[in-house]
Amino acid sequence: MIDLEAERKEILRHYRRLLRYAKPFLKDNDAKIIKKAFNTSLEAHKDMRRKSGEPYILHPLAVAQIAVEEIGLGTTSIVAALLHDVVEDTDLEVADIEREFGPSVARIIEGLTKISGVFDYGSSQQAENFRKMLLTLSDDVRVILIKLADRLHNMRTLGSMPRHKQLKIASETMYLYAPLAHRLGLYAIKSELEDLYLKYTDTDTYKDLSRKVRQTRSARNKFIKDFIHPIEDELNKYGFKFNIKGRPKSIYSILKKIKKQNITFDEIYDLFAIRIILDVPLENEKAACWQVYSIITDFYQPNPDRLRDWVNTPKANGYESLHTTVMSKSGQWVEVQIRTNRMDEIAERGYAAHWKYKTEGGGSAEGLEQWINKVRDMLENNTANALEFMDEFRKNLFVEEVFVFTPKGELIILPDKSTALDFAFEIHSQIGLHCLGAKVNQKLVPLSYQLKNGDQVEILTSQKQKPNEEWLQYVVTSRARTRIKDALREERKNKAEQGKAMLDARMEHLGVADTQQNMNKLQAFFNVATLQDLYYRVATGHIDIKNIKEVIFTAASDKSASMLDPKSFDREVQKIRGVNSDMLVIGETTSNWDYNMSNCCNPIPGDDVFGFQTEEDGIEIHRTNCKRAMELMSNYGNRIIKAKWTEQKELAFLVGIRIKGTDRVGLVSDLTRIISTSLKVNMRSITIDSNDGIFEGNIMVFVNDTGHLDKLIQRMSKVNGILTVERFD
Q1: Contacts of 170 (CB under 8 A, 6+ apart)
Q2: In this predicted model, what pLDDT tens digit does every residue of 592-609 receive, in sequence order?
Q3: How many of the other CB atoms lie within 10 Å of CB of 167?
Q4: In angstroms, rounded to a whole number, what is the distance separating the alpha carbons of residues 26 and 508?
Q5: Which of 272, 515, 570, 602 has its CA 20 to 30 A from that of 670?
Q6: Catalytic residue, candidates 43, 69, 88, 266
Q7: Of 47, 70, 89, 663, which one is the catalytic site residue?
Q8: Closest Cα partner for 297 from 332, 262, 266, 325?
Q9: What is the secondary structure of 180-217 as a DSSP string?
Q10: Is residue 88 flagged as an active site residue?
């Protein structure tokens, strides 16, 4: 039985908490407007419940709470957050919202409301939704911030969703929303989204790392206390007002470091960072940060390669801080971040804090506003389909920057790995399109030259120069890619028009009518997907005009035309799936599904897996923590198939094991004995590389399932001299 009175009290408790956090910035009528929005949402969602069984109204209340408490947004955002699902889930329309709450709230709601209607074949509904939401960015960045708050609450409450939904939502979050939070400077939200993604896609790893972080907490706290003691005394002596806190690394970033550097948990030296936050006036910020840096390096030796000065040159998302890594007395490296209260708020709350400081006349949001202008530019000039657009957009989210200069000394900030050609497009599209080469620091370099911090770049142009396909292989900015693609498309269109004229003349010469049926026969004969392609190939000579003969039009080749129908692929998928069979059982001989194991992650029984319907090779089986899983689930949700392993044990699967240890005589024979005799495992290959008494090796073996693999790893770990044993993809 549901206790309605207890639920009513719970809802009121959440509502009052929201008002308590909003109180400091409420003006005149604000409390009444928030109350009206709350009552409207409460009424609209009164008969709705979430998958967990709780009243639906608790979700918009939680989203509004995140918007205020964790992002620092104001009244308009609270109202929009409370109403964000009303238009989508009830009879209320955007016009009703505008009449009751004004145009600002209505515009935000419209941006948040999912798109509906027809989609291009091969496009993705999620990508279309995201593109629509980004279009409102040019009007109001709060759309994206509330969407992030909405996604964060959905991820926090993902436990009540079915498994396949968890995987899809988590992958989409990691693919788009975590990079977006990073780009908008919301580091706390970005880290939490990444950790929650790991929690649902690779649960065992998440639990294992969480446990290790918990176990080392008390030792870590003692270490921090000892480390900061002399610094605190010195800062007090100089009369600084300050606050010092330790910041542990997120679970996801720990895992990323373990994989990237191929090390164990115990080998990660910067599991935590010390953050020193100063309370100083705006005009003294830079001097104070460097003074504190000087104090720290009086006590601890700094690593010169690990100094990061984002105080003088902030990141493109506005992040400002001074980072150094120093050697502690106990022989551990410690990262120290030095920043002011203003910088810390911007680091924690990103764009919302920029807004606050900009309206108060302090600080600058230039980097972020330049980025948002680039997004607008990209949206207005992008003719690609939604998936292509999303790919371009993502490339510009999770990147470091490179700082370079024009010949006149103007600073230009570009994504890391940008080339001289990217720089040319950044200056002006026409300069990019006619770019012939570049001079970097007075020396001639090719267009593909990758820029380095401090480079001074001069672009050389020629009116005869035109973009070519090769350019797309080394530009990294979306601006350059979009302009190049547009120019190539235009060139292709002009060529296609020439090809059409040539084809029309040829058909007239043959006495063949220019009908749709005849064009279909031509497309089928030359195996081209579109008429545009056909014309282009004729113009470029890929199709010799002399090979277009009368016999093509008289042969009965209509049946092949149906292969070009894009919807036939989806129909085939549905036919294969059948009405009720939405679960693929891997390893059953009776299965009528055509599937194979993907090479990117080599799944074995016991792994958490899903099926992905490809266009040509049937169904691919992937592990849920595969590096491609995130992209597939985010963009092609309609092609994901639930999959589980059969109970049969006689199947054998190839898996890779990486070992590290200290070299000794007889080690390899001990390992191979365990593999082949004690566990009856067949080995396909073994490679061992030894250097200065340390060895690394890769072994490829056939196992039945993850249980079989775990036993093998445990036994190998006990061999004398072995330091680490782990599976690799």
Answers
A1: 155, 158, 196, 197, 200, 201
A2: 567 788 888 888 887 888
A3: 23
A4: 76
A5: 602
A6: 88
A7: 89
A8: 325
A9: HHHHTT-HHHHHHHHHHHHHHHSHHHHHHHHHHHHHTH
A10: yes
| Residue 658 per-residue DSSP state | E
Mean pLDDT score, 451-479: 87
Q: How far apart are CA 455 and CA 451, in angstroms?
A: 7
Q: Name the phi and psi angles at 464, rounded to 5.
A: -80, -15
Strands laid side by side in the 435-440 sheet:
443-445, 435-440, 457-461
**Alpha-carbon separation of residue 67 from 73, 76, 183 (angstroms):** 6, 11, 17
Please give the radius of gyration of the chain, using alpha carbons only, rounded to the nearest integer: 30
DSSP for residue 361: T
Of residues 691, 700, 690, the one with CA closest to residue 728: 700
Q: In whole angstroms, give the CA distance from residue 241 to residue 133.
A: 42
Could you tell me the CA-to-CA distances from 380 to 88, 124, 127, 383 in Å, in that order?
A: 26, 20, 16, 8
| CA 276 vs CA 223, 229, 571, 704: distances in Å | 16, 13, 60, 52
Token pair of 697, please?
Answer: 């090796």
Is 544 a catalytic site residue? Answer: no
How would DSSP label each residue in 105-124? HHHHHHHHSPP-S---TT--
Tell me 177's DSSP state.
Answer: I
Rounded Cα–Cα distance for residues 327 and 128 (Å):
49
Q: Which one-letter amino acid corresponds to residue 121?
A: Y
* CA gap 424, 480 in Å, rounded: 9
Amino acid found at 102 = G
634 neighbors 129 (Cβ within 8 angstroms): no
Specify the pTM. Answer: 0.66
Amino acid at 262: N
Q: Which parts of 78-159 are beta strand (E)?
A: none
Q: Which helix (H) or strand (E) holds 585?
A: strand 583-586
Residue 416: CB partners within 8 Å, gap ≥ 6? 399, 400, 401, 402
Which amino acid is residue 225, in one-letter code?
K
57: burial class by Cβ within 10 Å (0-12, 13-18, 19+)? buried
pLDDT digits (tens, 9 = 90+) for 223-245: 888 888 999 999 999 999 999 88
Number of residues assigned to the chain? 729
d(CA 139, CA 134): 10
Strand ranges, E, within 647-681: 653-662
